[in-house]
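It is time I had a proper look at our fold encoding. Can you supply me with one protein entry, sequence and fold together? It will help me judge whether the discrete encoding reads sensibly. Leave the record below and I will have a look:
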Amino acid sequence: MMTTSIRNSATLLWEEVAAIISGLIGGGRYGLKIRVPHAFVMTFLFGSHLSFKKKIITIAKLAAEHATNLASFACLYKFTLAALKLLSLRIKQSSGVLNPGIIRQFATSLAGLIINGPHFVRKKLPEAAIVSPGLPEHPYHAFLAGSMGGYVVWGRYSGVNYQLILYLASRIIVGCMTLASEKGIPPFSWKRFAFQKSYPIAAAAIWGTVMMLFEEYPNVLHPSLRRSMDEIYRYSRFKGCDTGGMISSRSPDLKL
């Protein structure tokens, strides 16, 4: 029995290590696949002031940063999940001790609260259930591991990191609204808030707001967004116009 238990533990440990390595490779591969074409287009579109050599170097740097960050985050996330599983197992074993002292019982309860979260957020699992390698034992574990990876990997400001944060923020907002609708939480569960009815209103509000900010407070918009909007709405080379290019928002030379 002891040999079988040790063998099973070794197998589970190796599977967790394999999941960590898989996350490392998958993150790096996906980062290159996504960032290389995006960086290529954006650099050649908006980097006309750069030489060809500097454009290639810029593309390589952006792709390397994106791939490295995704690989690091996936690796750290999977490692943290494995560590939380191990700590959770130790807590369960400690709670099974007969007649524990008051201090030990308090320490075990406190550790369980920190590692597994409050009881109302814990996912109920059968006693003999084994969570697949690389997956969280509780949703709370995913939050802890993601928060740690977000702070360590994505917490350093850069153009690439900030872009991903903005991308995720918009997806999270939509996802939370969808989840609230599925859970029957008003007002998101109301029929008048159905996607087909609310989408036109959301589009109107978002585009109205961004155009007002662009015209009145362009400094608060992200530089890449502002450059794109300048390219569209401040392009002045038409019908013999001799201004020679673009004019920026709130310019005194702007004729309305």
